[in-house]
Amino acid sequence: PILLLDEPTTYLDISHQYSLLNLFATLNRQGTTIVAVLHDLNQAARYATHLIAMKQGRIVAEGTPREVVTEQTMREVFDVDALVMDDPITGTPMVVPR
User: Fold this and answer.
1) Residue 20, Cβ neighbours under 10 Å: how many?
2) How far apart are CA 14 and CA 40, in angstroms?
3) Taking the domains of the chain in order of start, what are their residue ranges?
4) How far is residue 67 CA from its own chain's centroid?
């Protein structure tokens, strides 16, 4: 069982975004593979076990959130100068634009 989702949290208020992401996490723990396009980097880093960062149709980085969400990747993929630090709640990478 695989669930493919294209921007499932877009246009939802923050409460419903996290409700949906928590539902996906529960489904994943129950054995469902979830492939989702998310544009919120902090949500992706917090909930994903494997990330793929792409630019202009090519894969720039792939791996765990810690491997992918780096200051170098933020510059290369998004042209954003950002501080990447540990999320104080989960310990996953958190992006803070400068």
Assistant:
1) 16
2) 11
3) 2-97
4) 12
Q: Check if the beta carbon of residue 9 is closer than 8 Å to that of residue 43.
A: yes
| Dihedrals phi, psi of 26, to nearest 5 degrees | -65, -45
Task: Kindly report, residue by residue over 39-72, the tens digit of the pLDDT.
Answer: 999 999 999 999 999 999 999 999 999 999 999 9
Candidates 3.20.20.140, 3.20.20.70, 3.40.50.300, 3.30.70.260; correct CATH number of 2-97? 3.40.50.300
Q: Is the CB of residue 95 less than 8 Å from the CB of residue 74?
A: yes
- The pTM score is 0.88
List the structure tokens of 31.
Answer: 């054995």
* One-character DSSP codes across 29-66: HTT-EEEEE---HHHHHHH-SSEEEEETTEEEEEESHH
